[in-house]
Amino acid sequence: MAVPRPTLLFFSCVFLLLSCEFLQIESLSVGINYGQIANNLPSPHRVKWLLQSLNIKRVKLYDADPNVLTAFLNTEVEFIVGIGNENVSAMVDPVKAQAWVQQHVQVYLPNTRITCITVGNEIYTGNDTALKTNLLPAIQSVYQALVTLGLDKQVNVTTAHKLDILGSSYPPSAGSFRPDVAEYLQPLLNFHSITKSPFLINAYPYFAYKANPGNVPLEYVLFQPNAGVTDPNTKLNYDNMLYAQLDSVYAAIQAMGHTDIEVKISETGWPSKGDPDEPGANPQYAAIYIGNLLQRIEMKQGTPLKPYVPVDTYVFALFNEDMKPGPASERNYGLFNPDGSPAYNIGLNGYLPPLTSDATTMVVNLVSLLVFTSIAMILA
Asked: Its Gene Ontology biological processes (predicted)?
């Protein structure tokens, strides 16, 4: 008896999905920020194929989008999920914090690999004093929720900082935090030390070049050959600004009494387009910056201060996001355009499947339904 065509299509799609999950190919060491402030992005299911074709297995979200987390069920991709600034103060309440963890993290484990929660983004350099005060208690509540649920060994909690938390960054060995930020950071650093969670920093050498292109050597910010800058205190030579920025943060943390906290770069990137008053925002420089950065990451290179600790980096961002506010550069940090074409050429040519047909959508929905049914049975 002939097998109906929809049935053949179903089993073909399932076979392709399963075979893709078991491909054993060495992955890129870099992580990627997956922002979604846009009205033209591909569906998470299509993005899954794109990331798998690129062998990118670490993704940072700015929320805990169920559509994304469901699309990546039973893949090897590790996720950082986020609690937005608007929800941070609510997390001070332990009951609400535990409810959030149950709804946005526990329900997906272990099928979707969630390894970190960021509570807020760049809060300490904002103007909301109440939010700054609430950040650490919120982080502690989320952490306690993980402990209560038995998830603290597989999921850590942190927050991401803007680089201007530094009051001094040159030379790197003299790095120190701004006095108005230090009062908040001291107890936060104590938390990181106890829980072994990372200190995240959003670092953009592009901003330094944009602010002062006449005095910031382009080669120094683009990882191109140059004489570098020697720290007069340590005699360490820096041939690029990003590593100098990272070691400045390490020095600032050490100045506050901690040498046991790992610093990770939660965002770095270079825009491929900008406004007329945004020097350097072009595809040529973006390709050089990201291309050279990826080379160094794949070499597992450390900074001059931490030569044996590979720089853990999440590139910003996966897609250009057409609805982001601010200057044109803000909408043009993506490695890819929403149609899957590269924003510039660095040799990353991934596969973004075409828009799903009605039949394929039926299969995806059916698979998702089966997955959520299984999850519900587990939690029941």
From this structure: carbohydrate metabolic process
